[in-house]
Amino acid sequence: MNKPKFRAWDKNDKKMIDWEYLINYCDIDYLFGGYDGGFGKEGPKSYEYPIPMQYTGLKGYMDEAFNDPEEKEVAQGDVIDIFWEEWPAGYYQENHMIGVVDWDDTGTAWVIRNGKFDWDNPTPIPNEIDGMSISRSLPDEEDLEEVFLHNFNLTSDDITILGNIHENPELLNEVE
Question: From the record, what ranges are coiled-coil (predicted)?
């Protein structure tokens, strides 16, 4: 079994912090309470604690042209674009889903929340083939509220990491 890995968002300094740095170089009060923000034990507590974000075990690239030389780890709070191919009724189709990576409501599986689905058919799929009616059921908003990542057989080439909800809050507009 793999050991869980984390990173953390420092809300005060507005930067991402490597989890190893936090656990090796910061005291426990800084991480989990009791930090006085430099005002002494009697002064106001103005410090907000880092937000931990667990890595999913998936990897992706930071741009879809794969100009990024290294795969990056996908973590909770990342906004990702997933790509997959299908052949409905024998016609090639490219699919994309953009959403925020998070735990499901039970805390047992990784999901994409509030996903947005799009597709492209280089050759349009006809409504009828050899007298058989072809119908397409596209996912509606309720279907996309929580899509399990294990539904996809993903490789790092299938995932583009667009950013995360803390460093790139404007990406939430694309998802919502």
Answer: none
Please give the angle made by the CA atoms of 21, 164 and 161, to the nearest 5 degrees: 100
Q: Each residue of 67-80: pLDDT tens digit?
A: 667 889 999 999 99
- To 5 degrees, how large is the angle CA 7–CA 11–CA 17? 25
Give how far the C-alpha of residue 139 lies from the chain's centroid of Cα atoms, to the nearest Å. Answer: 19
Q: Is 64:14 a contact under the CB 8 Å cutoff?
A: no
The DSSP secondary structure of 86-130, one letter per residue, reads E-GGG--EEEEEEEEEEE-TTSSSEEEEEEEEEEE-SSPPPSEET
Q: Give the pair of three-digit tokens for residue 70.
A: 């290294």
Whole-number percent of the chain with pLDDT over 70: 80
How many of the other CB atoms lie within 10 Å of CB of 79?
22
The continuous run of DSSP H or E covering 74 comes out as strand 72-75
Q: Is 34 helix (H, G, I), strand (E, B) or coil?
A: coil
pLDDT higher than 50, residue 45? no
pLDDT at 88 over 60: yes
Rounded mean pLDDT, 59-68: 74
For the entire predicted model, the pTM comes to 0.77
Q: ∠171-52-175 over CA atoms, to 5°?
A: 20
| pLDDT at residue 43 in the model | 45
Residue 25, classed as helix, strand or coil, is helix
